[in-house]
């Protein structure tokens, strides 16, 4: 009985330590029991079992606050997308078109929806402009982050849906005492793109075993216009400010001639989008007596962001007077000069009119987003066996967004205006203010997301084996998710020149039961087993499992392997999303489209089933005894996703239909002659992903030349990435992003006394740029260009003036490397989500502790 009480007390201490470190840690101090017994029981990312060791079967990358500061990251998406384990093209601060200021993570390039984001070990509400499918990382200020842990294994058996590609667990600063003020800022050497973040952290301990930590942060990010970089390829849109009729324009002599000029939209669009963010956060830990610990955290963030694009490209069809089925009171008259130039009505009696509405002004997208996330947990111990711990928690998240688009165009009013003022519109002269006021409007939308999570878990030791105790965790969870998005009535009615969009509104709930067991088969071999059962109100039941093994071959070498299944439930927007138009960068093999941006109708499906996945990893951790301070990890990984909820490859659909494949024409609603007026890309469960690769890490700490050195190298070698049967490894595309074969990050830090100097670089391998060209007979063929490899060099110095004052100064992209050209890049002739489009940046920061 005495032994049980001592261990229960030790478990209590360990429980308090676990709560204090947010359930995840890189290194821990041993907490002593009453008579000196050391008990280390902490929870690690990827498991709910509190463990005595940190070595698990699953590979985890840890990025601490010092590294975040040293490398000058001002947002979480920048931090994550710089990791070698990322691929694709996650939207973020460089995404100007369609992101609504949101920032996401794309682990393994498998899509943001397949990476689960946790805050302090618990779910974060999806957020953005409404009915969102992933977490907006902008809701989490860098100032509040103690560290970020990236679990690079499938973890659905532990955390449920969305953890197919892995888990990003963001740990906030807590258990803090004192007052700390931080300022960090940056700007380019070209005088733009300034960013600044000011934060305050205050914490205190209480006499009765508590700690309360409070923080506030403000950040401001300024924009960078695309055309302000001399390498930017000018745009050449067919929508021009003077307008065109059937592709014809008036010359200086008043004659109608074929349009020969285009509009450079890069003068109106951002490479770095402006944003302001205000955040308040707090953490508390309080002992209540009777071996109870109350903990909680709360985060509130307001984001005000905007994007800017060229004035609205208005594309309307005008009835021609005198044609059958055309209202004689709603038509334009084709005069002799127009007829002589070949302008005529199509078979429907209409003619196409296009105009870049510069008279009204550029499209300015604004977002005012509020995000609240709060969690409260009660932990305690049970005097059972050697002592068990229990945890009951409630987590609430809510996101509300008001978004609007200034200088939108009402297509119906514009059409009527052209009929009433034909000469004013077709002359090419600037429009009158009366016309501008008539056709322009501000598009207003609103949306949001809400989440409730109730969870309980019991963990401890079941019984002893010769090699040690069998540990377990068993828990249950209830989660409710809802989302909505209400577009402007003009857009819903399809009366705008922007794509038509329907409202989205829906919800679902899920009840889950899970269990984990850790079994020490011998002193060297340990098995980890997890099983989870979920029951969704939408599609029904799902079950997943995970098996991991670790084998300590020697004191220097540990082998590890994991096999797991996973799933991703269809989210609100996939189930209940209204039809949405999207202007995608595509090549029309019929050459009917006048622009590379082609309107595609996106559809959802309430009968979607969950995605299913299998993941495997095997590797080693090696710390050679003959080289003190060195460790190596090498891991092979593979993910396979079936029944993937995806939109098909629209570009392939165009090519297949053009080649005579009727199935492709029917799937995408394209006519064999290339009529794209009903071009549709539906969500389906027929997609697949198959990706594999190798991760390598080298960490080495040593002394030399009177300095303390730290070297760290991360490398990811992509063996394969296939989606829907199409191989993307080693390629880059404006729609799908980058899947470089090799990504490598190297950092070298030298420290002596109060100063340190760090050099780090980031390498992205060359990639194939696959695009369509046309031969002398105007027939399309597939061409392959090369997007060059890039190597970014960065350097930063840090100096501790006193125990209270620390300052740092650094340079990003020291050699001002230009991004690689991509033929169908998403912006400016490249892919800003992949390459650095901002250029050389100077950054620095000051920390003062009171």
TrEMBL record:
> What cellular component GO annotations does this protein have?
cell outer membrane
Keyword annotations: Cell outer membrane, Membrane, Receptor, Signal, TonB box, Transmembrane, Transmembrane beta strand, Transport
Main location class:
membrane
Question: Which compartments does it reside in?
Answer: Cell outer membrane
Question: Which residues belong to any copy of the TonB-dependent receptor-like beta-barrel domain?
Answer: 349-814
* One Pfam family hit: Plug
Signal peptide positions on this chain: 1-32
Annotated Gene3D superfamilies = TonB-dependent receptor, beta-barrel domain, TonB-dependent receptor, plug domain
Question: What superkingdom does the record give?
Answer: Bacteria
Residue ranges of every copy of the TonB-dependent receptor plug domain listed in the record: 54-167
Record membrane topology: Multi-pass membrane protein
- Family membership noted in the UniProt record: Belongs to the TonB-dependent receptor family.
**Protein known as:** Iron complex outermembrane receptor protein
Organism from which the protein derives = Shewanella chilikensis
């Amino acid at each position: 009985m005495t032994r049980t009480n001592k261990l229960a007390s030790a478990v209590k201490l360990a429980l308090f330590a676990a709560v204090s470190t947010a359930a995840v840690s890189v290194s821990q101090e041993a907490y002593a029991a009453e008579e000196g017994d050391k008990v280390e029981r902490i929870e690690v990312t990827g498991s709910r079992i509190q463990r005595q060791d940190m070595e698990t079967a699953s590979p985890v990358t840890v990025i601490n606050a010092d590294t975040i500061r040293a490398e000058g990251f001002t947002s979480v998406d920048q931090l994550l997308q710089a990791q070698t384990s990322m691929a694709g093209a996650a939207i973020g601060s460089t995404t100007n078109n369609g992101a609504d200021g949101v920032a996401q993570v794309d682990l393994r390039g498998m899509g943001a929806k397949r990476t689960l984001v946790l805050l302090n070990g618990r779910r974060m509400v999806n957020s953005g402009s409404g009915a969102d499918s992933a977490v907006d990382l902008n809701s989490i200020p860098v100032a509040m982050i103690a560290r970020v842990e990236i679990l690079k294994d499938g973890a659905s058996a532990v955390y449920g849906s969305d953890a197919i590609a892995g888990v990003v667990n963001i740990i906030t600063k807590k258990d803090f005492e004192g007052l700390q003020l931080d300022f960090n800022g940056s700007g380019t050497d070209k005088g733009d793109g300034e960013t600044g973040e000011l934060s305050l952290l205050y914490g205190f301990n209480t006499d009765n075993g508590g700690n309360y930590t409070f923080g506030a942060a403000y950040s401001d990010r300024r924009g960078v216009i695309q055309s302000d970089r001399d390498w930017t390829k000018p745009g050449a849109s067919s929508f021009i400010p003077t307008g065109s009729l059937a592709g014809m324009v008036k010359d200086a002599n008043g004659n109608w001639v074929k349009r020969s000029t285009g509009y450079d939209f890069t003068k109106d669009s951002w490479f770095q989008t402006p944003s302001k963010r205000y955040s308040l956060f707090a953490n508390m830990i309080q002992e209540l007596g009777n071996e109870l610990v109350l903990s909680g955290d709360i985060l509130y963030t307001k984001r005000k962001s905007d994007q800017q694009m060229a004035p609205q490209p208005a594309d309307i069809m005008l009835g021609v007077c005198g044609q059958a089925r055309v209202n004689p009171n709603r038509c334009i008259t084709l005069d002799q000069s127009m007829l002589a130039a070949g302008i005529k009505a199509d078979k429907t009696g209409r003619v196409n009119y296009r105009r870049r509405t510069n008279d009204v002004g550029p499209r300015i997208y604004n977002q005012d987003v509020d995000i609240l996330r709060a969690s409260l947990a009660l932990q305690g111990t049970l005097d059972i066996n050697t002592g068990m711990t229990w945890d009951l928690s409630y987590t609430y998240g809510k996101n509300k967004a008001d978004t609007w688009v200034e200088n939108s165009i009402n297509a119906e009013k514009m059409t009527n205006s052209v009929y009433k003022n034909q000469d004013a519109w077709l002359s090419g002269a600037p429009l009158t203010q009366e016309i501008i006021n008539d056709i322009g409007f501000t598009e207003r939308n609103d949306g949001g997301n809400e989440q409730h999570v109730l969870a309980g878990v019991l963990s401890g030791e079941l019984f002893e084996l010769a090699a040690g105790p069998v540990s377990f965790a068993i828990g249950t969870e209830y989660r409710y998710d809802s989302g909505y998005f209400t577009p402007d009535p003009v857009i819903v009615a399809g009366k705008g020149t922007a794509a038509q969009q329907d409202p989205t509104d829906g919800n679902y709930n899920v009840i889950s039961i899970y269990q984990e067991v850790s079994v020490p088969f011998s002193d060297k071999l340990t098995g980890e087993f997890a099983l989870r059962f979920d029951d969704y109100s939408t599609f029904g039941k799902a079950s997943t499992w995970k098996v991991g093994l670790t084998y300590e071959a020697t004191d220097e070498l540990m082998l590890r392997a994991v096999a797991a299944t996973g799933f991703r439930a269809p989210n609100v927007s996939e189930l209940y999303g209204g039809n949405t138009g999207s202007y995608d960068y595509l090549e029309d093999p019929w050459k009917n489209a006048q622009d590379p941006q082609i309107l595609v109708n996106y559809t959802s499906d309430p009968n979607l089933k969950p995605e299913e996945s299998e993941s495997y990893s095997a590797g080693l951790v090696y710390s050679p005894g003959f080289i003190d301070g060195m460790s190596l990890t090498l891991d092979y990984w593979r993910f396979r996703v079936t029944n993937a909820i995806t939109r098909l490859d629209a570009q392939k659909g165009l090519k297949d239909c053009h080649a005579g494949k009727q199935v492709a024409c029917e799937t995408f609603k394209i006519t064999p002659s290339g009529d794209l007026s009903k071009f549709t890309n539906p969500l389906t469960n027929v997609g697949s992903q198959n990706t594999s690769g190798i991760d390598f890490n080298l960490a080495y700490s040593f002394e030399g030349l009177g300095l303390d050195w730290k070297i760290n190298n991360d490398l990811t070698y992509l063996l394969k990435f296939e989606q829907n049967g199409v191989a993307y490894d080693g390629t880059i595309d404006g729609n799908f992003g980058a899947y470089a074969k090799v990504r490598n990050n190297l950092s070298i830090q030298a420290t002596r006394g109060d100063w340190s100097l760090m050099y780090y670089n980031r390498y992205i391998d060359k990639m194939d740029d696959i695009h369509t060209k046309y031969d002398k007979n105007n027939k399309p063929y597939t061409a392959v260009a090369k997007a060059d490899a890039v190597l970014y060099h960065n350097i930063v110095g840090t100096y501790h003036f006193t125990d209270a004052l620390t300052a740092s100064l650094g340079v990003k992209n020291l050699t001002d490397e230009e991004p690689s050209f991509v033929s169908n890049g998403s912006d400016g002739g490249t892919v800003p989500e992949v390459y650095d489009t901002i250029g050389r940046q100077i950054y620095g920061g000051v920390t003062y502790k009171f």
